[in-house]
Amino acid sequence: MNCQDMRLLLHAYLDDELGAADSLAVARHLAGCADCTQRLRAYTRLRDDVRAAGLYRPAPSALRARIAARWQTVQLRRQGSEALVADAVSDHVRSLLPGHLIDVRTSNEHTVKPWFDGRVDFSPQVKDLSAQGFELVGGRLDVLDGKQVAALVYKRHLHTINLFQWPGNGTAASPPRTRDGYHVLEWNDAGLHFVAVSSVAESDLQVFERAFRAEPGAASETAH
Amino acid sequence: MDTGAVFERDVMRHLDAAYNLARWLARNDQDAEDVVQEAMLRAFRFFGGFRGGDAKVWLLAIVRNTFYTQCARSPAAGSIDEFDEAIHGGAEHDDPQSLLLRAADAQNLHAALERLPPEFREVLVLRELEECSYKEIASITNLKIGTVMSRLARARERLQRELTGKEVAA
After folding, report:
1. A4 touches chain B (CB under 8 A)
2. Is the complex ipTM higher than 0.90?
3. Which of A113, A162, B48, B57 is the most exposed place for a label (fewest CB within 10 A)?
4. Nearest-CA neighbor of A197 among A208, A209, A185, A211?
5. Which of residues 54-113 of B touch A (CB under 8 A)?
6. pLDDT tens-digit readout, B100-156
7. Where among B24, B43, B72 does a domain terminate?
């Protein structure tokens, strides 16, 4: 080993990052080389000086407080959204019990929409998606997140899709979630918050969301 | 334990390390705070994807990426690392007589470290202030361990030169 080899190894030696064989070779070289011994001493000194110079910059307490508060908000929102998903799934399961699914049975969007008038204090979006493979079978009132909400019921083959909606822009659109084997999708549109729950494949539920959002729907009836 | 508690236990306790790295990279308080806030937001978001391992390494890698992403937007941020390696890469070993043997003044050290290119500054901060191993530095900076070793050697040589004010003859 010569002095040029030592150029890098000296630092790894100083940092105790060499294997036993290299370490021994460096130690042997140092024993016979005053220049490299001097370099090692200088770099050891430099390292100790850097560590002793008070250069460490800990996080200011105001920043720490800001981040902790932010983290708390994120967590609360996450917990709230978890609770909502659990609630929506349990409403969905209850709706599947005999006699619970539908208050107004019709495949006509123009019948479902007026039915909600006076039952909820907003105008729900009701859309016929039979052309896209989702048959509207009816609607009902339900309670979600402590609020009275409109529930639309669609069928996809043998599967039921419950679409809950109410005014608000709760959780921003989030990725599909799965709970107890049911898929849950949430989105916001035109001041309403939507939650779709079903046992259809996740991809089918995403197709449903896209179809629902794209379809103009029964709101246009006033123009007739 | 829920995700929130795990995040606090494993990630929030490295906030000082996150700030220290960001502060030395950004070289001013305001930018460092911006980098750390953005990095912590990313950490919140990606924590679900964090599968054990070293949380400090994971967080510092996010801080570093955040800094370079934010800096890429400002044209002033340029790397002179390549220049430096080209000029000094084949240079002779430091002349031992030129090396600083008296205690370096803390203020000079601070200024000298700030003058180093970010590539050198970051490995020195991770090694000397965070006491990271070469393997940890390699994970944080996405470099090979051999590159970490040579970069640290060059960084210390540069710091020596900054402190002694002497250039090593090429």
Report:
1. yes
2. no
3. B48
4. A185
5. 92-94, 96, 99-101, 103-104, 106, 109-110, 113
6. 656 678 888 999 999 999 999 999 999 999 999 999 999 999 999 999 999 999 999
7. B72
